[in-house]
Structures are given as structure tokens and as C-alpha cells.
Design a protein that fits this description.
Blueprint: E1 30-33, E2 39-42, E3 45-47, H1 52-62, E4 69-70, H2 71-79, H3 87-104, E5 111-114, E6 117-120, H4 128-144, H5 148-159, H6 173-199, H7 203-216, H8 221-233, H9 237-255, H10 261-271, H11 275-278, H12 284-287, H13 305-317, E7 323-326, H14 333-344, E8 352-356, H15 368-378, H16 390-401, E9 407-413, H17 416-419, E10 430-435, H18 440-445, E11 449-452, H19 458-469, H20 471-476, H21 478-487, H22 492-503, H23 510-516, H24 522-525, H25 536-545, H26 549-558, E12 565-566, H27 568-573, H28 579-591, E13 596-597, E14 603-604, H29 607-622, H30 630-634, H31 638-645
Parallel strand pairs: 7-10, 7-11, 8-9, 9-10
Antiparallel strand pairs: 1-2, 2-3, 4-6, 5-6, 12-14, 13-14
């Protein structure tokens, strides 16, 4: 094996603005070590921080430098599910002690109070955790460019930062989950370094190390494959085949599964004495980098326990049949899909793919050919080898995932035809699709399970507010918090926007913010400036724009009805006689998740969507110059108007 080489240090990055003052760049004066026992080093000497709990608290702050960490999250990181009764007071005591220690190192002002939490303002280049993550990214790029020795040297430098278990084994709750993530990244870095060394011809020197690695991590098939390749290249073909037999028996006896497709293919190549295996030049994407594309799990994800359980049951029952998570914009479809994917990702060791079809997003939707090109590239196919037609790409995609355990998450699909070519076609895979449309065609033809999300129950809405605003602010005025949840329609995106707006104030006050959520201004108030992805009106606008003109008109009419329920009498009143056409329009609105089925022949408009529809009708009237006002378009005859003016209960 090549001798260890120190990685070249990168130049300091400019200070960043992250919800506050610039992050401080401390040069070589102060360094923070998390890849092992938590440690602060100033001028080359350790600074005493305190016992395990202050160290865990500092680690929790340093995992997200430049961002405020709420008090509840800090308590969770230190004590987990069993906090001490005085945990909040103890956090404040620990923060004071940490400030004193940092002040002795000349950095006492980097730890500040922000809202109901604390923020440490240092650049992530001062933290070994983030330095290590950067080396892994750089090494992947070097491997893809064929620069194997540079990649191996960089990874050795990054791995040398590790001094033991992440955070020294301290912490609970979210901090413990972060420690597990870092340990997984360390193993991935070792896999990458082994791949780089193999490509550089270091196979004989690697064999003893790989024998230790497969003993320490017996279920990581990458290490077994590398061991087989190294043995084969060292003219130890029988030993390579014996290694395959060992891992095959291990997986069968311990997990009840067989080796993955890549391991089986390597065995076949050894069996056939394939010369390509002796001079392998595949790119790093093909050899070492499995797709791990899931977005980060929402830190304050709340509720949806029954929906999570149902989705996982369906995925386990039939991997061929997709699970569609449908619902109106902002209801939490993507968050739920990502949460489920994280919960089951260990069952898909060959990778997790994530593709955003942008069905309702800004810009043009991703067409089938583009989506397949993205997936093929993620699976290691070089751009020059991706076929030209969508049909050929779909065939290659299904061939690559066949018999591999891969999870696919397809986000924001507009229609079923966007999704069908992306279905893996192999029962070893699973696919989750999110869409504002119910995608009934997938249910009819591909036996998809369609799960339609509703607003959160009241208790889960309050739980979400506590997770973002903090328990103290909610408990200070529980009645105001309950009213705020009601005004947000118990809609997850609306609740998160409102919570973010409350947190942005110097003194979080739910009652003061609630006063702003009045009347027709509600949808405009539920928005984060300069971010259409965090604005309720913008979210609804994109769904409304996708409707047919006649369905847009029908939707506006629904906003003028005195009741959220739409049944037989109301349908009759909406038209001069073409009730069947109106019913078809109502069905299309329901399929687009802008209307809810509420019994035979009955529909219901959610509160926020009703406010949006009424606002559209009012704006349409105001811009019609009197020539064709929305009221005139309604053309209710006397009996029909009476039917609408007296709300009729829906038949349940």
C-alpha cells in the first residue's frame, strides 16, 4: 500500500452570512475536534471544556455552525428522551462554562443567544467534521477524473482526522443519530480509499487490511468485493472464490438474503477468469460510489405515524407496486416520503435514488428522457454511454437495477406517464412517488397504493409548533398556539412558515403574530420573503395554473359558496343545467387535490383552499372592468340561489 500522505490544506473560505452576523474565521488559533473525543484546541494546546454533558452540548452546536439550535434540541442532544427536571437551567450553566473556556482561547464571543436557542458563529473549516466531509467530496471528484493516487492521498489525510468514535461516544437523540451518520461516512471514505488504491495497483498490500475490514464489517459487500478483486489480481483465484462462498453463507445464515448483483457479477468474472477484472478501469461512480441521494430528513418532522406504517407495509408487501403519496401543495408529501425512505434505507444497500420531476415547480417539468438520464448517471453510466431515446434509456435503467436492492423516490410528479418509465420493474427494488395529483392511472394499471394526506390533527399541529418555535413559547400561551394552528388550517407548510416568522422576531410572541393572520391577508402573511417555496399563495398558484380554464372558473365559484361542503343542490346551482359537466369538473379538482371527497356525490373544500378560491374570485371580479364579473358568471336562478344560500349537509 502506498505510504500515507498528508492532504493539502485548502485556503480559508470567506465568512458566510447565515441568519446573523458573519461567521468568524479563527485561522489556526482555535480548532474544534468532533471526530473522536470532543476537544477545543487553541495554539496547539487543548482547552478544557468540562465534563461529558458540556461536551455533548458543544458538539450539538458545532454540527450546524452559524445556525441557531433550539433549546429543546440541545436538551435532546444531551439527555435524549429522559431529560433532567432542571435540564434547561443546566444548559444555560453549561453554555456559560463553555463561553468562559472559549474566552480563554480568545473566542468568547462566538457563542451567543439567538431567539430561544444558541448559535456558535465559527466557519466550518475550523471543525474537523466538516473538513473531513470536504475531503470525501473532493476524493469522489478525483476518482471520477481518474486521479486515483490523488484521491487516495486526500482520503488518507481526511481519515487521519479521526481519533475515535464521533463525539467520543457522547450524546443522545439527534446527536446520536448524527454520530451514526458520521461513522457511516467514515466507512464510505475507507471504501473509496480502497477503490483508489486498487485502481492504483496496490492490490497485494491491500489484502491484509481488507481481511480485517470484512471481519469488522461483515455485511458491507463493498469490502468483500474489493477483497475478492485484490486476491484475484494477486493470482489467488481460489482464495477469491472462497471469500465469495464465505460472504454468501454469512448473508444467508444471518440475514436470509443472497449477495447483491455487483458481488455476484464479480464472482462470475473471477470464475470465467475475465481479463477485464485484472485491468479494471471503471469510473468511481461504477466502482465505489453508491447513490445515496436522499435529502436530509426534516429535523422537526411531526406525526403521520399511521401513514408511515401503511407506506412501509405496502413497500414490504410488494416492491413492484409503487406507493403514491398524494395531496395538495404544502401538505407534507415530500417530507413524509423522505422520512419513510430514511427509515428503510438500510434495507436497500445498493443505493437510494431521488429525482425531482418538477411537475409543479418553477421552470419546465423534467421530461422522461431527462429523468432517465439523471437516474442512469446516478447509477454510474458515463454520459457518452447513455442511449439517445427515452425507450432505450428505460431499458438500460431497468437492466441496471434488476435484482439490486435499490430504493427510488420520485418527487413532484405531474401525471402517471411521467412516472411509468421510471418504475424499476424488479421486486428487489421499491419506489415512492409524490404528487399533487392522485395518479389514479398508476393505481389502475400498476396496482399502486395511493395515500392521500390530510391536514394534521390538532395535537400534531401543536407538536410541530413546539418543534420549531420551542416548547416554552407554545406553553407560554397555549390558547394562542391553538388558534394559530387553526388559522394555518393545520397545514404543515403553513405551520412551518408561521413558526419561522415567529422565531424571526427578537421576542417570539405567538399572539402578536396571530393578530397579523386576519382576513384576506392570511395567505400573503403566510410567506417567507424572497422564497416561493415557502409561500402558501405561490404553492397554490402553481396548482391552479395547471387546471383547465373551465376548472379554474369552477374552482373560483366554489370559493363564493357559503359552505365548504359541495353536494347535489350546490352542484345544480353552479350551472344553468349541465350538472354532469360540473360533476366532471369537481372530479378533476378532487383528482388534483384541490377538493376532497366527503361522501357519495359530496365534496369538501379545505379552509385554506377555500380562502384562496374566494380571493381568486374577488381578484377576477376586480379586474373584469364590469364586463364579465364573477358574480355575473354565476348566473344563479332564484331557486338555485336559495339552495346555495342555505348550506346543505353532505351525505356521509
Amino acid at each position: 500500500m502506498a505510504a500515507a500522505t498528508d492532504s493539502t490544506s485548502s485556503p480559508p473560505r470567506p465568512a458566510k452570512l447565515v441568519n446573523g452576523p458573519p461567521l468568524r474565521h479563527l485561522a489556526d488559533r482555535v480548532r474544534f475536534h468532533l471526530l473522536g473525543p470532543v476537544e477545543v484546541v487553541a495554539g496547539g494546546r487543548p482547552v478544557r471544556i468540562g465534563g461529558p454533558k458540556p461536551q455533548a452540548l458543544l458538539a450539538a452546536l458545532l454540527t450546524t455552525p452559524g445556525r441557531s439550535v433550539e433549546m429543546d434540541h440541545l436538551v435532546d442532544a444531551v439527555w435524549g428522551d429522559h431529560p433532567a427536571g432542571s435540564a434547561r437551567a443546566m444548559v444555560q450553566t453549561y453554555v456559560s462554562a463553555i463561553r468562559v473556556a472559549l474566552a480563554a482561547a480568545g473566542a468568547g464571543d462566538v457563542l451567543t443567544r439567538q431567539g430561544s436557542g444558541y448559535r456558535i458563529s465559527v466557519d466550518d473549516v475550523e471543525i474537523d467534521q466538516h473538513e473531513f466531509a470536504d475531503t470525501v467530496v473532493a476524493a469522489r471528484a478525483a476518482l471520477d477524473a481518474g486521479e486515483h493516487r490523488r484521491a487516495a492521498a486526500g482520503l488518507r489525510g481526511g481519515l487521519s482526522l479521526w481519533r475515535g468514535a464521533a463525539f467520543g461516544g457522547l450524546g443522545a437523540g439527534r446527536l446520536l443519530a448524527e454520530a451514526h451518520r458520521l461513522d457511516e461516512l467514515r466507512l464510505t471514505a475507507i471504501e473509496l480509499r480502497v477503490t483508489a488504491d486498487l485502481a492504483g495497483g496496490e492490490h497485494e498490500a491491500l489484502i491484509p487490511e481488507l481481511q480485517h475490514l470484512v471481519a469488522d464489517h461483515p455485511f458491507r459487500e463493498r469490502f468483500w468485493r474489493s477483497l475478492m478483486v485484490a486476491l484475484h489480481r494477486a493470482n489467488r483465484r481460489a482464495d477469491a472464490m472462497a471469500a465469495f462462498s464465505r460472504v454468501r453463507d454469512l448473508l444467508a445464515n444471518e440475514l436470509g438474503v443472497g449477495p447483491g448483483a455487483e458481488l455476484r457479477q464479480t464472482y462470475q468474472e473471477i470464475l470465467e477468469d475475465d481479463v477485464r477484472l485484472l485491468a479494471e478501469t471503471r469510473s468511481a461512480a461504477n466502482v465505489a460510489v453508491l447513490p445515496r441521494q436522499l435529502p436530509a430528513d426534516a429535523p422537526a418532522f411531526t406525526g403521520r405515524a399511521s401513514e408511515i406504517a401503511r407506506t412501509i407495509r405496502r413497500l414490504h408487501a410488494d416492491g413492484l407496486a409503487p406507493v403514491v403519496i398524494a395531496g395538495p401543495p404544502g401538505i407534507g408529501k415530500t417530507a413524509l416520503a423522505v422520512r419513510v425512505a430514511h427509515l428503510i434505507r438500510q434495507q436497500f444497500p445498493d443505493g437510494q435514488l431521488f429525482v425531482d420531476l418538477r411537475g409543479y415547480g418553477p421552470g419546465q417539468p423534467l421530461d422522461t428522457a431527462e429523468a432517465l438520464s439523471w437516474l442512469l448517471g446516478s447509477l454510474g453510466v458515463a454520459p457518452s454511454r447513455i442511449p439517445g431515446s427515452a425507450d432505450e434509456r428505460a431499458l438500460l435503467y431497468r437492466s441496471l437495477v434488476a435484482d439490486r436492492r435499490i430504493l427510488v423516490v420520485v418527487d413532484d410528479a405531474a401525471h402517471a406517464d411521467q412516472v411509468r418509465p421510471l418504475l424499476p420493474g424488479s421486486a428487489s427494488c421499491a419506489i415512492i412517488v409524490t404528487s399533487r395529483h392522485s395518479l389514479r392511472g398508476l393505481a389502475a394499471r400498476e396496482e399502486a397504493t395511493v395515500l392521500t394526506l390530510e391536514p394534521l390533527p390538532a395535537a400534531e399541529s401543536l407538536q410541530l409548533l413546539r418543534g420549531v418555535v420551542g416548547t416554552r413559547a407554545v406553553n407560554a400561551d397555549p390558547a394562542a398556539a391553538a388558534r394559530l394552528a387553526d388559522r394555518c388550517g393545520h397545514w404543515p407548510l403553513a405551520l412551518r412558515i408561521a413558526a419561522a416568522q415567529v422565531c424571526a422576531r427578537p421576542n417570539p410572541d405567538i399572539a402578536a403574530y396571530l393578530a397579523e393572520l386576519t382576513g384576506s391577508s392570511r395567505l400573503d402573511t403566510l410567506a417567507v420573503a424572497d422564497d416561493d417555496r415557502a409561500a402558501m399563495r405561490a404553492a397554490f398558484d402553481s396548482s391552479y395554473a395547471a387546471l383547465r380554464p373551465e376548472d379554474q372558473e369552477l374552482f373560483r365559484r366554489l370559493g363564493q359558496l357559503p359552505s365548504p361542503d359541495v353536494g347535489g343542490p350546490q352542484v345544480a346551482a353552479l350551472t344553468d343545467g349541465a350538472a354532469a359537466d360540473v360533476r366532471s369538473g369537481l372530479e378533476r379538482l378532487a383528482a388534483a387535490s384541490l377538493l376532497k371527497h366527503a361522501g357519495a356525490g359530496c365534496y369538501r373544500l379545505h379552509e385554506l383552499l377555500r380562502a384562496y378560491a374566494a380571493d381568486l374570485a374577488e381578484r377576477n371580479t376586480a379586474t373584469a372592468d364590469g364586463s364579465r364579473s364573477e358574480c355575473a358568471v354565476l348566473r344563479f336562478p332564484g331557486t338555485a340561489l336559495a339552495a346555495v344560500a342555505t348550506p346543505q349537509p353532505c351525505t356521509r
